[in-house]
Amino acid sequence: SVTDMSFMFDRCQSLTSLDLGSFDTSSVTDMRSMFSRCSLLETIYATGKYTTALEESCGDNAFSGCLSLRGGNGTKYSDSHTDASYARIDAPGQPGYFSDKASSPAPQPPTSSTNPGGGTAQPPTAPSNSGGSAAAAPSAPAKAAPVSLAKAQVTVKSKAYTGKTLKPTSVTVKVGGKKLVSGRDYTVSCKGGKAVGSYKVTVKGKGAYTGTKTAAFKILPKATSVSKTKAAKRGFTVAWKKPSKANLKQTTGYKVQWSTDKKFKKAVKSKLVKKNKTTSLKVSKLKGGKKYYVRVCAYKKVGGKYYYSAWSKAKAVKTKK
Fold it and tell me: Which residue spans adopt a coiled-coil conformation according to this UniProt entry (predicted)?
């Protein structure tokens, strides 16, 4: 029996509905991208027996790009639900993209093409697979409509100031949870820059993807480090490394943070040091005889926005009673 239905209807742009009630899926283990990029597909009719087998199979991006799809109970297609977990009959409390064949009107044929004998084309049936190899996919239109990048998630990794022109080298693009491949699915352009601030990144679709999406590449101040801590009565003094002349120009000030929690998850206090030439801070009114952890980062204010460096490594200091 058939074990592989991956890419079976991939890019079948003329499909508007499918009746899969007669499919034997008892042995299916793979339905990756089975319906992907069928942008006009509105309804998939199935039975409970059919969907049970599919929910147990591999189905990454099974419904990716099925923008018109709606389940029998009204569940609409979402980019956040494109794998086989929604390959089930849509019901209250159990959303899915299938419609129950037993309680739905008779489906229309998936295409408007006609057979040589004059009859209406029927939906493809799962071919037999006596050799145990992958089932052959039905023929598809020559070219599918590309998927828009309008709702793509773009992540650009920031870099620390070096004094040299910097450009993004780590850009991640995802559509519907699927990670796209640079060079094949998109290209990236960014002029970059030298100074601390934000620089526009443009992601342009390629191949099966179209449109553009913009994001920001950030150059952050160079991080500093804590050079010394000194305990005081119910407080402490912390000092940090003075920036070089070049780094000083890309620094407005510093942010000092302290906490009794080593991981800085709770009881966190902070203070901004607004002069870039000041490299120490006295903290008071703390609990006596208590261990505190302190760390520092540099910041620069550009056009009303704050750009913070990475945090320094935290150092511990115990206050005096």
Answer: none
181 vs 118, higher pLDDT: 181
Q: Are residues 207 and 290 in the same domain?
A: no
- Lowest-confidence range among 96-100, 108-112, 260-264, 306-310? 108-112
Q: What is the pLDDT of residues 143-185, one digit of tens each?
A: 678 999 999 999 999 999 999 999 999 999 999 999 999 999 9
Nearest CA to 48 out of 10, 14, 91, 93 is that of: 91
Identify whether residues 45 and 154 lie together within a single domain: no
How far from 106 is each of 46, 125, 191, CA to CA, in Å? 12, 17, 56
User: How many domains is the chain built from?
Assistant: 3
Q: Which of 120, 144, 168 is the last residue of a domain?
A: 144
Say if residue 139 is in the same domain as residue 181: no
Q: How far apart are CA 123 and CA 195, in angstroms?
A: 60
Secondary structure (DSSP) of 67-89: TT-B-TTSPBP-TT--SGGG-SB
Token pair for residue 251? 């620094």
Band of residue 1 on the pLDDT scale cut at 50, 70, 90: low
Q: What is the DSSP string of 14-48?
A: T--EEE-TT---TT--B-TTSSTT-TT--EEEE-H
Q: Are 64 and 130 in the same domain?
A: yes
